[in-house]
Amino acid sequence: MVKDDLLMIPGPVKLHERIIKAMSSQMISHRSRDFEEVFEYCKNAIKPLFGTSGDIAIISGSGTAGMEAAVASFSKVRKITVVDNGKFGERFAKIGAKYTEVDHLRFEWGNSIDLEKVEESLANGSEAIAFVHNETSTGILNPASEIARIARKYNALVIMDGITSVGGDEVKMDEWEIDVAVVGSQKCIGAPPGLAAVAINERAWEFYSESVPYYLDLKAYVKKAESNQTPYTPAVPLFLAFAEALRIIEEEGIENRVERHRKFARATRVWAESAGLELFPALNEHSSYSNTVTAIKMPDGVADKDLRGTLREEYGITISGGQEHLKGKIFRIGHMGNVTKRDLVATLSAIEDILSRKNVVKPALHAAMEELG
Amino acid sequence: MVKDDLLMIPGPVKLHERIIKAMSSQMISHRSRDFEEVFEYCKNAIKPLFGTSGDIAIISGSGTAGMEAAVASFSKVRKITVVDNGKFGERFAKIGAKYTEVDHLRFEWGNSIDLEKVEESLANGSEAIAFVHNETSTGILNPASEIARIARKYNALVIMDGITSVGGDEVKMDEWEIDVAVVGSQKCIGAPPGLAAVAINERAWEFYSESVPYYLDLKAYVKKAESNQTPYTPAVPLFLAFAEALRIIEEEGIENRVERHRKFARATRVWAESAGLELFPALNEHSSYSNTVTAIKMPDGVADKDLRGTLREEYGITISGGQEHLKGKIFRIGHMGNVTKRDLVATLSAIEDILSRKNVVKPALHAAMEELG
Known about the structure:
The structure is a homodimer.
Chain A: E1 6-7, H1 17-23, H2 33-45, H3 47-50, E2 55-60, H4 63-73, E3 79-84, H5 87-97, E4 101-106, H6 115-123, E5 128-132, E6 134-135, E7 140-141, H7 144-153, E8 157-161, H8 173-176, E9 180-184, E10 195-200, H9 218-225, H10 236-252, H11 254-275, E11 288-289, E12 293-297, H12 304-315, E13 317-318, E14 320-321, E15 330-334, H13 341-357, H14 365-372
Parallel strand pairs in A: 1-13, 3-4, 3-5, 5-8, 8-9
Antiparallel strand pairs in A: 2-10, 6-7, 7-11, 9-10, 12-15, 14-15
Helix pairs in contact in A: 1-10, 2-10, 4-5, 6-7, 11-13, 11-14, 12-13, 13-14
């Protein structure tokens, strides 16, 4: 069979042809006017996705570099509260511990967070809070505006990992009073991996610490960004791709894009439930299902490789499994970025086909199609 | 005029068509067997360029990320000697100061280093030394094997920035007893910017420090590299390009490639001197001219924009100026990576043409051509 694969994981996502083309060009100098124009466009076009008019830093590195730059640059705090209900929350705690004392609020992976515990921690001397907006490891959307509201009562700095929400779901940094937020290029924005953008509001600078690593010092990035440059040689092809991805978003319109992501997520959930599958997250009134990735419990008697292996071999579709202790227990469908209705329907059909052979699902595609409209 | 530019700066360098093509592909999962094969090839193919059989870490980030990862990961030292005779030596000192005490050995930019001062510093309690092999800011090749030999007498860890030498000039880490060395993707290797590879020999691990930044922890990279993965999402398109660049190097043969770089450098120097221009570096018996970039003093009465601006506008060729206090005082021609004889002759011709109009050079192209053979 001709190899023609489709990525349906929660990032990296499939690339739109235009983005591949934008990246496929001869090298230009990173100190040229041509590059500065690309940078300037990226810097400005990304602000509405964060919902901010603040500063923007763009780091050549993965989302984790962005998370660490955010925590380390603004680590002039005696203690930071880290909300952890998934793999990336846990990562924030590990990063935080490198720079200050961490009050590590652990919730079971896949469970909602408890806002009372968050408030308790902040009342107990934390001067900052870090949390993951959209936790791809479990398919949960954490209550960003409510966390920020509580933090504001205690005058704490708010750092948000928006790596898999910015550009696909609603993010309103300024309105919600989030001080620092991070996004990765390869998620909802739909570009290749390798860039992390950090948005920084004025108030964050009060927490700036000189003890930040040299490469991750956001002050250096923001200062250079004034003249549309980067402090260290940028990954030029990734900036060209990033700019094209942002142009596509501008054309779609961010509100339409958020609506599309939400509709795809609803259709996936409706399909799963109609098929007799069980969604993984256990939610309270404050949390919701992710709009960019859906985590579903693996049906009894189905091994990870039966589903994901067959899906890849037979259909050329890659979805994700569970991470760490969730390995084999859940599967995750990414529906973020420039994924189409066609891609989603193909993925759900293929999964339904494979699981039907095991007699663990009922026909449910029409329910999904109805939701997709 | 049709826009068709040629980059002749000391990185990023022009991309070979094959490298552009390799990068121009649909996204693949970073946890797929396909990616692991690409990673494995890169990991193995780069070792001969470093002249090592040690561990390899590949970071998604610029060369500076690699420099900081090297210094921070192996910072279990009371004091580090940093050799500084150019912009990147200075950067090493700034990075070093974030992790330990620095004995900052400053030499005038463009001057050779003084090995007696190096020995004095090591005798004075430094447990490590960091230096730049090929200093692109000034066009000097520092004496790597001699620095390492002195360091070995004092049992000091040796960290080398080989960002603009590895893959273009001779580097023999194991033979010279260099413990840690760094290379950037966009220099002699000829790939786009955005990856830094670090080679690590066994002895370096004695100096491993837990206080390394999370994103720059080389232990995490080396551990994941055992299964041909990366600890954080890699910049996939840059790995595809990097692998193709390494294939091109394998086809040329590293010895031939080093010889080509040396010949291009000699031709550039012969041309400059025959033209009546003056090379910038002031050398002693231990240092040499760089084989990957040539720094030339700007002739009296010629402004930077007269030369570099006209070159860009009229010929579509970009060369570099001087950095910081050398701005307007020197110009630098990069002849690294997959640059051809044709590119070099075009560049020297164009510069000669422009400077002739100012009556500051004599015809010298034939001298260069003779050297090129």
